């Protein structure tokens, strides 16, 4: 089994998810427009970008859930150090 990918802590940020969602929506619109205009090469490129940004958005959501699940486990430690 492969090891978990190394992701920076900011990868689960809501801003990353919003940017990925916006880029995905833009590329899906471009995909439809290129298909209507019969520009097959540009449509394929828009499809490829859509797959990339969709994957980045899903992985960011998954990483955010992992961070949220790990947070209570880290919160089990005492709030103040023992005297």
Beta-strand residue fraction: under 5%
Question: Which whole number gives the mean pLDDT?
Answer: 83
Instruction: Please write the string of helix (H) and strand (E) elements.
Output: HH
Helix content: 55-70%
> What would you report as the Rg, rounded to the nearest angstrom?
19 Å
Low-confidence runs: none
**Separation of termini?**
45 Å
Total DSSP helices: 2
Major β-sheet profile = none
Q: SS-based structural class?
A: mainly alpha
Overall geometric form: elongated
What is the number of strand segments?
0
Walkthrough of the structure:
Helices cover 70% and strands 0% of the residues. It is elongated and about 65 Å long. The relative contact order is 0.14. It has two helices and no strands. The model has no long low-confidence stretch (mean pLDDT 83). With 83 residues, the protein is mainly alpha-helical.
Give the SSE layout.
Layout lengths: L13 H23 L3 H35 L9
Defining traits:
single chain, 83 residues, mainly alpha, 2 helices, 70% helix
């Amino acid at each position: 089994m492969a090891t978990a990918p190394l992701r920076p802590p900011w990868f689960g940020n809501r801003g990353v998810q919003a940017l990925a969602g916006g880029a995905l929506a833009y590329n899906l619109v471009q995909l439809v427009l290129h298909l209507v205009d019969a520009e097959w090469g540009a449509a394929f490129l828009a499809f490829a970008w859509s797959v990339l940004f969709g994957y980045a958005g899903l992985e960011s959501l998954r990483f955010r859930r992992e961070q949220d699940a790990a947070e209570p486990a880290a919160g089990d430690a005492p709030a103040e150090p023992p005297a």
